[in-house]
């Protein structure tokens, strides 16, 4: 697969576009907001410049050459020639539903439709199309260019051929994958969201500060990041949407979102992308 479509120029979509363009693919990055595309272009160039510091063993790439492989556009119709599309829009059903109807109409027969979602069942999203065998879950972790493994989700109708084509696409850009069955939150987020949510309850109850919660996980368990730092990196709005999906779909009270999380999202404290969440990131914006 040579031509890759990426829908959504937020944090995840920008990272996915950088990943495939760095791997030599032609990429069409689509967003409804032109300023988001401008920001994505800058972020991708910055990410490519920083890559030698983070991955010195990998070949150095020219930022202009990488961004030159990406067409930045607000026109979804430019996905007509895509061999694979990875969707990264916000975790809201009312946003995804009309988008998949459009992708079903626009994308050529046989194109793989990859769903980069934190929690929504792949089978449900595939039902929005007339080609459920071509739909596969593509749960990239943040930052997408750096994480070595992708959680790939097989929906009820996802064909073996779709899984293998997507696995080969990932291998071509240096990514491994673990294929799992379909369930809200899949494997990673069914487990991680419980930890993140409970960390918020501990903070709300005054048991420990945000810094101390994260420090315990890093220094006692050897984790690279604590649960509240992880929530900030994901985006608190995305964490909330994911918990709501888990709570509604699994009918399990253990996924009830912490009220502190709702308050912070209402206040616009979304984590790294807004400059403030459980920690402050003003200096890195």
**Structural class by secondary-structure content:** alpha/beta
Tell me the Rg in angstroms.
19 Å
Helix percentage range: 40-55%
Strand order of the largest sheet: 3-2-1-4-5-6-7-8
Give the SSE string.
EHEHHEEHEHEEHEHHHHH
Q: What's the N-to-C terminus distance?
A: 35 Å
Beta-sheet strand percentage? 5-15%
Biggest β-sheet strands, sense, barrel: 8 strands, mixed
Number of helices: 11
Low-confidence stretches: none
What's the mean pLDDT score?
A: 96
Shape: globular
Number of strands: 8
Features:
285 residues, alpha/beta, 8-stranded mixed sheet, 11 helices, 8 strands, 14% strand, oxidoreductase, 3HC_DH_C, NAD, 3-OHacyl-CoA_DH_NAD-bd, 3-hydroxybutyryl-CoA dehydrogenase
Structural notes for this entry:
It is a single chain. By secondary structure, the chain is an alpha/beta fold. 46% of the residues lie in helices and 14% in strands. The chain is built from eleven helices and eight strands. The chain has helices spanning 11-22, 34-54, 63-68, 93-106, 122-126, 160-172, 188-204, 210-221, 227-234, 236-250, 259-266; strands at 3-7, 26-30, 70-73, 84-87, 112-115, 135-139, 149-154, 176-181.
Offer a quick outline of the entry.
With 285 residues, the chain is an alpha/beta fold.
Write the layout of secondary structure elements.
Layout lengths: L2 E5 L3 H12 L3 E5 L3 H21 L8 H6 L1 E4 L10 E4 L5 H14 L5 E4 L6 H5 L8 E5 L9 E6 L5 H13 L3 E6 L6 H17 L5 H12 L5 H8 L1 H15 L8 H8 L19
Parallel strand pairs: 1-2, 1-4, 2-3, 4-5, 5-6, 7-8
Antiparallel strand pairs: 6-7
Helix pairs in contact: 1-2, 7-9, 7-10
């Amino acid at each position: 697969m040579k031509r890759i479509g990426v829908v959504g120029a937020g944090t995840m979509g920008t990272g996915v576009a950088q990943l495939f363009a760095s791997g030599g693919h032609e990429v069409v990055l689509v967003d409804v907001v032109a300023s988001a595309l401008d920001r994505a272009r800058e972020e991708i160039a910055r990410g490519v410049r920083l890559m030698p510091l983070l991955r010195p063993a990998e070949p150095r790439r020219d930022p202009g050459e990488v961004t030159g492989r990406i067409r930045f556009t607000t026109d979804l119709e430019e996905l007509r020639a895509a061999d694979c599309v990875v969707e990264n829009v916000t975790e809201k059903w009312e946003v995804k539903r009309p988008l998949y109807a459009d992708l079903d109409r626009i994308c050529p027969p046989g194109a793989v439709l990859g769903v980069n979602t934190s929690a929504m069942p792949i089978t449900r999203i595939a039902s929005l199309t007339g080609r459920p065998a071509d739909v596969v879950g593509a749960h990239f972790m943040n930052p997408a260019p750096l994480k070595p493994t992708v959680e790939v989700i097989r929906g009820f109708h996802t064909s073996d051929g779709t899984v293998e084509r997507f696995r080969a696409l990932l291998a071509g850009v240096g990514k491994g994958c673990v294929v799992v069955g379909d369930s809200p939150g899949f494997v990673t987020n069914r487990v991680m969201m419980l930890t993140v949510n409970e960390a918020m309850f501990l903070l709300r109850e005054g048991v420990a500060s945000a810094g101390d919660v994260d420090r315990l996980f890093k220094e006692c368990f050897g984790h690279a990041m604590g649960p509240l730092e992880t929530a900030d990196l994901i985006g608190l709005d995305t964490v909330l949407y994911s918990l709501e999906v888990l709570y509604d779909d699994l009918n399990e009270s253990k996924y009830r979102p912490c009220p502190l999380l709702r308050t912070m999202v209402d206040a616009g404290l979304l984590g790294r992308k807004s400059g403030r969440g459980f920690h402050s990131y003003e200096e890195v914006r």
